[in-house]
User: Fold this.
Amino acid sequence: MAATLHVRVPATTANLGSGFDCVGIAFDILDDYRLEPRQDAAVRVTVEGEGADRVPLDETHLVVSSLREGLRHWGGSLRGFDLHCTNRIPHSRGLGSSAAAIVGGLALAWGIAHPHAELDRCEIARVASLLEGHPDNAGAAALGGAVLGWIEGEQVTTVGLDLHRGFRALAWVPEFHVPTAGARHVLPDSVPRLDAVSQAVSAATLPIALHRRPDLLLAATADRLHQRYRAGLMAPSYALMESLRTAGVPAAISGAGPTVIAVGTDVELAGADVVPAPGFELHHLAVGGGVELGASHAR
Assistant:
């Protein structure tokens, strides 16, 4: 019997303003990957949905390259295969599409290398974080919910963060893209001390605000390290974020942008109704679970 593997992996947001490179949340926009082994050594990739006309359809596809990396890491062998990707996470918009592809490819590798073992999401999060470089995105995609994550050398630490039971999110997704590498390039090597202190206060408040004090989310999502330096790359997004925050909505640039994310309960998000957002598609999001792996067999 040859196993057909099915993987489902969530979108993520990173940073939440003050949690730069260390806080991420999974949401219920899901990509699905189906892998069917072949008898020969051919690799065929098909894609529908987001990025279908832009992503490579060979070994350089990010799911495929991550699958290969996982097999090198955990063992297991696979000759040829058909991989079908159903993509719903917007690409290059700051919602973790790359992290999802890496986590999904690693989950497929795990299923091949450990066909009778339960998926180890913590191990997936660790390896994905080292490959992707961002434990906020990779950790949330693998583990689900909200995570605090960091990397020291080869050591990856991820800690789950509790969320208020009324927690939800809004995402304003524009048509234009901002590559992560370009968004990284504009960041300064140092910032004023007052900005660093302000950021420390906001970041320290963020886990408390997410769990017990959503009324503090506006202050907790305030950022002075990265968003304003990227404003020129995504002027409409930055302007929308500022308008939302002026209206009292805890808004931030999602990841490296240009999506704008707002988080909280109905109380914190109520002001969003009066803020115009031309050129953006609004998504109502619930918190997502971690990566899922299933298998079926055909004789």
In short: The longest helix spans residues 193-211.
